[in-house]
Design a protein that fits this description.
Blueprint (H helix, E strand, L loop, with lengths): L3 E6 L7 H15 L3 E6 L15 H4 L12 H6 L5 E7 L7 H9 L4 E4 L4 E4 L5 E7 L4 H18 L4 E6 L13 H15 L1
Parallel strand pairs: 1-2, 1-3, 3-6, 6-7
Antiparallel strand pairs: 4-5
Helix pairs in contact: 1-6
Length: 194
């Protein structure tokens, strides 16, 4: 049985560089036998502008967000997967706001046990990946975004594998004809799915 992968694509540009690379990654992962679900988080309808710290998720026994909108079922399916891959362009030295909104709501998948002073979750089995594109060089944008995701994934006791793509300007479509990058993205998909 192949791995189950959820890709959270945070690019607001439907045919942009990030989504091009997401397609290549998915192609490679499928070649390796994975079932790939690509979620276009930029198009999800959210009731609020991110997590509103209502703490409904912490008052419930369930690992789910209390806010009922299109993000809630995405979060609920995440622990059922084997691999979660974040994909984002660099926007002002960080991930896209659309992806960050979903990331913040992932708080609902973690419970704080005040009696033990520790966090508990059901995400320890997951492998995590990052695909990140930037119009500039590795530093500072790509490396800063990668650090955000490494920190988040490290918090739950896991590690992150990254595919960082510099000089992927949104002002041209050169990336779509880049055979070497296509193969790198497909290889990354095969690697994570393997």
């Amino acid at each position: 049985m192949g791995k189950k992968i959820m890709m959270l694509s945070g690019s607001p540009r439907k045919n942009g560089n990030t989504n091009t690379v997401v397609g290549w990654f998915a192609e490679g992962a499928k070649e390796a036998g994975a079932a790939v679900e690509v979620v276009d988080v930029a198009r999800l309808k959210s009731r609020n502008n991110g997590c509103i710290a209502c703490m409904g998720c912490q008052k419930s026994e369930k690992y789910e967000c209390a806010v009922d909108d299109e993000i809630k079922p995405i979060l609920a399916r995440m622990p059922e997967k084997d691999i979660v891959v974040f994909a984002t362009p660099v926007y002002f030295f960080g991930p896209s706001a659309q992806l960050k909104l979903v990331m913040d709501r992932m708080y609902s998948l973690i419970k704080f046990d005040p009696a033990k002073g520790q966090y508990v979750h059901e995400l320890g089995h997951l492998k995590w990946g990052l695909i990140c594109t930037d119009g500039g060089d590795i530093n500072p944008g790509l490396s800063l975004v990668e650090q955000v995701f490494k920190t988040s994934v490290g918090f739950i006791g896991s590690e992150l594998e990254s595919l960082l793509i510099p000089f992927a300007s949104m002002y041209n479509d050169d990336i779509k004809q880049n055979a070497e990058l296509r193969e790198r993205a497909m290889a990354f998909g095969r690697k994570l799915a393997g």
